[in-house]
Design goal:
Elements (H helix, E strand, L loop, with lengths): L13 E2 H4 L11 E4 L10 E7 L10 E2 L4 E7 L1 E6 L2 E6 L3 E4 L8 E4 L6 E7 L5 E5 L4 E10 L5 E9 L11
Antiparallel strand pairs: 1-2, 2-3, 3-10, 4-11, 5-8, 5-10, 6-7, 6-9, 11-12, 12-13
């Protein structure tokens, strides 16, 4: 087992665009520093996410398998949950339980300085995720982690309108 402790100054932030290239401009500049795999966690995933002013790290999404929690370490911004918007700031805990599009969440930096938060997830696999803004649905099965602690997974993304009929090809 790896050492079960890591300090903030030992984290190695990576640009999310290096992990997931071709992101639209509104997501550029966000960094992710993995923690959980580096200290031996098995059923929880956690990282430090840093978001530049005016940006988001991830599209709005909801999970049917994984619950998430965020703790704002520095800065301020806005939490979107379904159709609601909430101001967030340093010291805030945020719960994002499983559910349908009404639980879809996104954190956006609305300030002029960096927004930094701890992200925690239950890491249940497989998971089904919806992206209400783009109409996508994704299934993911976690296969493990790479040397940097980032998930290796089988992912299938599609739109409901493009689904095959149950009997297609039978």
């Amino acid at each position: 087992m790896s050492k079960p402790i890591i300090n903030l100054d030992e984290l190695q932030p990576r640009l999310f665009s290096d992990i997931r290239p071709n992101a639209p401009e509104k997501y550029s500049g966000a960094t992710i520093a993995t923690i959980s795999a580096r200290i031996g966690a098995q059923r929880l995933g956690y990282n430090i996410t840093t978001v530049p002013p005016g940006k988001c790290a991830f599209p709005a999404h909801n999970h049917y398998g994984n619950e998430e929690m965020f703790f704002v370490l520095e800065g301020s911004g806005e939490l979107r949950v379904g159709d609601e918007r909430h101001s967030i700031r340093s010291g805030d805990f945020i719960a994002c339980p499983v559910g349908g599009p009404e639980t879809a969440h996104q954190i956006r930096n609305t300030s002029t300085s960096e927004l930094k938060y701890l992200a925690v997830s239950t890491m249940r696999t497989p998971d089904l995720v919806q992206y209400p803004d783009s109409g996508k649905t994704g299934a993911m099965h976690l296969l493990g982690r790479d040397a940097n602690g980032f998930p290796k997974a089988v992912r299938i993304l599609g739109r409901e309108a493009d689904n095959l009929d149950y009997w297609d090809g039978e």
